[in-house]
Structure formats: C-alpha cells, structure tokens
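The freezer alarm interrupted the setup, so I double-checked each line after restarting. Inputs confirmed:
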Amino acid sequence: MNHTFSLFEHLQSAIWIFDIQQKKIIWANKASLPLWEAATLDELTSRDLGADMSQAVNATLEGYQQHFAIGEAIKTWWYFSPNNIMKKALCHFSGFPLVDGRTAMLVEVIAEESSLRRELAFSGCSNLALLFSADGELISSNNAFNHSFGFQLHDLANFFGDISLAKDWITEARKHGTVRHKKLCWTGRSHHWFDIDGKWLQDKGQLLLSLVNISVEKEQLHKAKYNAEHDYLTGLLNRRGITNAIIENQHSQQPYCLFFLDVDGFKLVNDTYGHAIGDKLLRAIAIRLQESVKFKGLLARFGGDEFIIQVEQRHFEETTRFAKQIITTLNRPFHLKEVGELSIGCSIGTANFPEDANDIETLVTQADMAMHRAKLRGRNRSHHFSPDMADALYRKMTLRHHLTLALEANSFELYYQPIVDLNNHKLKGFEALIRWHDEELGQVSPTEFIPLAEETGQIVPLGKWILKTACQQLASWHNKYDHTFIMSVNLSRAQLQTSLAPMIETLIRQYNINPAQLALELTESAMLQEYDEAKQCLEDLATLGLELYLDDFGTGYSSLSQLQDLPISTVKLDQSFVQGEHKGSQAIIEATRAICEKLDLKVVAEGVETISQLKYLQNCKYDFCQGFYLGKPMPPNEIEERNFSLLNAIPDRNTQMITISR
Ligand code: C2E
Ligand code: CA
Ligand code: CA
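Predicted 3D structure, all chains:
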C-alpha cells in the first residue's frame, strides 16, 4: 500500500483512503495532516471516525458506494470536525478497490474553504443531509446541516411546512425509490430554498434527503428579475417590467388607457446642460409622474425621455382630461440646483384597451403613433389613436422596405417634362422627375417616397443616380439634336454637402456638358435649413456655372428678399397659384412677377393645365411655363418618338405641343 501511494505522497493537496465499513482512514498523504488536525499519520489512521458519525452521514456514504460500484465519482463540499474544529472542503470521492475485494473511498481535496473566497465557498453545494423515519420523524442530520441551521428541526412536515406534502413525499419515495424537487423549506431556524434529492433506503425503511442550499441563486435570480424589469435611473418599471405587469393583470379584463408620453425638447436640455443634468431632470419628471399616477395604475420609463402610464378607466373621468392633468403637472417649472429653473412640455398619445387593441404591444405602438401626431399638431398636447394612423404607418413601413429593394435593383426611371420659353415660344428645356414602378405597390409617387428617402438618407445615393442619368440624357440629346436645352434637376436638402459640387463637376466633365445647361431646383426650406452650410454649398455650385432655381415659391414663409444673398437665378412659382387654389392667387402671380423683375430673377409658372391659364401668364409677362397643357412628364423615348416636334412649338391651341401632352 505504501509503495502504491508513494506517488501521491508529495502532492500539495490532501488525499486519503477511507474504509467505509471500518470508518477508518487507512492511508493519507502528508498534506492531509493539517486538515485532520493530526500530528502524525499513525495517529490519524488510528482514529475511529465512526464514533461520532451521524446516521445521515452513514446513509450518505452508503449511497456513494453504489455510485462507485458503477464507476462514478462524486464531487461535493464536505464538512469535517476533527477535534471539534469545523472544516469544509470541496472533495472528489471515488471508489478504490482493496486487496480483500471490498471497495474503499479515495478522497482528494480539491479546495478548502479557508483557501477560497468565502462567498464562492458558500455558493457551492454542501452535503447537507437529513434522515427521516418512515413516519417522517427526523432521525439524524449531518454536521453540515447542524452547523448551518442548528438542531431545531424535528420532522418532515415541519421541514416542508405541510403535513400532507410530507406524507406524499414518503409515499412517492417508497414507490419510485427517489424524489427530486426544488422547494422553500423551514430548517427550524429560517426559510431556505433547497434543491432536494430524496432517496428511499429500502433495507432500513428510511428517507434520506440530500440538500443543496440554493437560496443565494434564488435571490440572485430574484435580483436579476428585478433589474431586468426596472429602470436603473428612475427606479420605475422599464419597458419589459410594465409589459409583464400588464400581461399578468390582463385576466382582470378591466378597460384601461395607455398613455405614451414624450418630453418635448429633452434633447435640447441634454445638449445644453449635459447628460448629468438630463438624468436629473428625468428623475424629477419620474417623481412628478409618480405623484400623478399614485395607486391609479402603472408607470414606466420606456427609454430615453419616453414614459408609459397605464390607468384603469374607472380611475379617471376622461382620457383627455387626465392627459391634460399630466401635461399641466410637467409644465410647472423644475428647480435644479445646478441650472436653476427649467421648463418643459410633453406630448402624449393615448390608446384604449380593449377598444383599440387587445394586446399590450399593439397598444404601445398605437399610443406611440398618436404621440407623434400630438407632436405634429404642435406639441405639449395629447392625441388619441385612430386607425388611419396605423394604415399610414403600415404603408410607410412597406414603402421603406420596397424602397431599399428598389435602390439595390435600381428600378427607377427619369421622366422629363418640357419647360417652354414664353418669349420665343420655344422649348427651353426639361425638368427631370423621378418615377418608380414597384411590382407589388404599382406606381409610387415621388411626393410619397422622396420624403422617405430623405428620412433614411437614401436620397444621397439616389440623388447621385438622378444627377448622373439626367446629365447622360442631356449629353445624348445635345449630340443628337444639336440644340441647347436646359436640364433642371430637383435636389433635396441632404444632398447639399461639400462633396456635391466636386461630384457635379466630374459629371459635367465626363459628359462634356456646358454648366450653364444644368439647373438645380431647391425649395426655400432646403435652402434655409442650416443656412450657412447650405449657402456655402450653393455658392460652390454657382461658381461651377450652374443655375439655381427656387422651387415651389409661395408655399414657404420667407420673402424673396430673405433669399436675396443666395445665388438664385430663377424662381418657380408653385402650381397652386396658377391653378387658383388660393384667395388672391392672381395677385400673387402678378406680385411675384413684379418682385422678380426688380430683383433681376427669371420666373417659371408651374402647373399650367389650360389655355386660359397660359394666356393669363403670357399677359403677365412670365418668362417660362411648365404644365400638363404644354407637356406631361414623359420617358425619353416618348419625347424622341415625337421627334422633338415641340422644339419649335408655339404654345397655342392647335400646336403639336398639345398632341404631345395628351
Ligand atoms: P416639383 O419639383 O414641384 O415637380 C413638379 C410636379 O408637378 C411633378 O410631380 C409634376 O409631374 C407635376 N406637374 C407638372 N405639371 C403639372 C400640371 O400641369 N398639373 C399638375 N397637377 N401637376 C403638374 P411629380 O413628378 O409627382 O413630383 C412631385 C414632387 O416630387 C416634385 O415636385 C419634387 O418635389 C419631388 N421630386 C420629383 N422628382 C424628384 C427628383 O428627381 N429628386 C427630388 N429630390 N425630388 C423629386
Ligand atoms: Ca421641381
Ligand atoms: Ca415645384
């Protein structure tokens, strides 16, 4: 024996062989001595460990033997109490064949509690064991159990806190041999969660419970659930928390209203004062909302500066009034030590359960949509959801998806609408207008998809394609017909980047275009947004020799004089005036012409649909004209098929131009 184990002799960790029957250590290495509080190996091997071994431990060890018989090893925390000093070690138990044919137990200590971090040691599974008689009386508990929980436990019913459950367990264990459950139990001193492995000892007619204390894990789980459902900043429920809470309460079926609240201009606070102040403000807002909602319902921070409130309808008279109350509460100035007084507004969208939707996800989306409508209507107000909002959103989402596909497949086309010079009745050029035919959605109007492309930034690559295609077409027609047309291309605000002018310069060179033949159309809002940057960009374009048109004039709020220091050459009067949609349309047509003359700007009238409109514009001495009466936007081949008969067109009742446009 000594020879065999000389190999282990010098190992750092304690190893010994335990004779289960004799309850004696029959061999141990030197490293075992301190753990067993032994002076010599002889002294250790002479100890009778059976003397104070509880029946529970006995039964446990017998159970281990069955594992060893089939070649299995066991790893667990084990309590020792040599010389009444309590020790705990993580041990590896395995079977060890003795020369007499019996199996002993080889114990290797993997780690001792004293060498590990305490919390780590306790999070491991200890070999807590309880032995009960067939009628549920506690026969024995092991040292590990006694050390942690004392000696107050008497029976199984006491442990489970339930007499009939105790009986069921014994019946079940008897029948199946084993039972296994996770349960909150009473140890005689306190409640703990245990993972319980019960085993029926057939020969003795006893129930042995091996317990693993999983209270820490349970608590951590509870904490994790709390953290997952609450907002760290305000302590309110978060998105998941309120969703779960509402789902849990849904069985009550009480009608409720969901309020989606967004703080107006919160970004400005963050940008101006920094995020620390922003966070403080959010906490203050949360407190005020909490006061308003109190016990009437649930309140959650949904993310950023968005909050959600759920209130059962029996707690308030009317949705709008409750929303107004909340707005008024938040409108009261906030006093923050660092910055003084701060005033904010908020926009609220509302949706009702069950009228608007049956499930919380949909209600949140609906209330969110309604909130955006409230913002559009001028903020600091509330708005209730209506189904048309959902349709609009669905359409928008579908379009967004198809637009991405169309960009990849490049399924766009440019149409060209004639612009006629009223002085010589000749074709001045064309405005390039984009067309998109989607297989599923059909023809989609640019008034619908251009704003979407602007939102997503897709307008930049799309705009590049438009410019390139228009330049290519212009060059091709120039070569074919030897005529100097103007090609007018619409631009979006997002395209006014410093890279635009160099990009256009490259195109002009590539297609050998006279820059004066290229015009760019921009609305006044595009020109005035981030004015300095836009101005620089427009000046770069003008330096290239391009013309700049002010599109849709009359629909914005600025006066022409405000736009005077921008390099604009031409103004396009919005078609609504030509079509007489406004009170005083004629006056505006005439005034625009007069102002433009003074400012040395050319004017184009858009949307000419009838001969009388055309005549009127001629009388007003408009320079250029555009409209269905003179020609609809057409694909290039259609324009070519008509062999440019509009080249010398005279915009009169019987001109070919009419033929073309019809
Ligand atoms: P816009 O720049 O004001 O273009 C004129 C719009 O009026 C065009 O609509 C044109 O087809 C239409 N139109 C022309 N004559 C008449 C008429 O006599 N009566 C009526 N009722 N309408 C007439 P379209 O092609 O649907 O384009 C709508 C808007 O979409 C454009 O307004 C422009 O803002 C934008 N857009 C079109 N193509 C492009 C493009 O290539 N790039 C950019 N950024 N925007 C574009
Ligand atoms: Ca235009
Ligand atoms: Ca226009």
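Quick read of the result. Residues 551-552, 572, 606 surround calcium ion (ligand 3) (CB under 6 Å).
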